[in-house]
Amino acid sequence: QAFLVLVCVGALFRIATTCSPHCQTRAPLTTAPPPSARSGQISYDAFGQKIRVRSTGLASSETFYVDQLMLFRQKVYYEIDWLKSSCKKKPLDTAFIPMQVPFDAHATMQMFLGSSASWGMGVLVNSWSGVLPNNGYYTGVFTEIGCIPMTFFSYMPTSGWSMISTFNWVLGNTNPMDFAPPSFCAKSKLEVTETPDNMFTALQALALKTKRGD
Length: 214
Description:
The protein is mainly beta. It has two domains: about 25-95 and about 170-210, no CATH class; about 105-165, no CATH class. Helix content is about 5%, strand content about 45%. It contains one helix and twelve strands. Strands 1, 2, 3, 4, 5, 6, 7, 8, 9, 10, 11 and 12 form a twelve-stranded antiparallel beta sheet that branches. Strand 8 (about 120-130) and strand 9 form a beta hairpin. The longest helix has 14 residues, at about 200-210. The two termini are about 35 Å apart. One of its GO terms (molecular function) is calcium ion binding. This is Ependymin.
């Protein structure tokens, strides 16, 4: 394993922000505090603005399972509990979708992951940064060709740091039902919260509740 610290500097260049319409990937996720890590699969529908996250993880020596469907156009997301055949429907902050470059993001750096010395030795990527609601901020790294999302870092004062690192992206989706809530979610009522979750805080919140046994 390798750990990299990226120092971003200002740069002026134009980069396409078009991302793949349907794709799936394996994705390790790390959140803090408290320390927790997970791995699983993310499915993304750029046309419908939907994300499905299925993952398992470990927090404070306890295992948890996450299954969430995020519907950004509807501004809601579902926490799906297959054991109980139940759902929780919650408001979703749609200002930031980490699978694509936001229109108000700032281009901070273009670089090679690996080496540019020879073909196949590295990947040309672009780094973007911006702000999140409630005094948060983020950095995202996307490939120059195809605008494939690779790594995301976010910080929220209320929940701390989160990181998503993706690999093995596959274009296309073999199961369109990934982006439809299960039938037992139909009667779920939208919960009222003071502040809508974004993708990062939603993943953190479910992990914490699972760990506590809520």
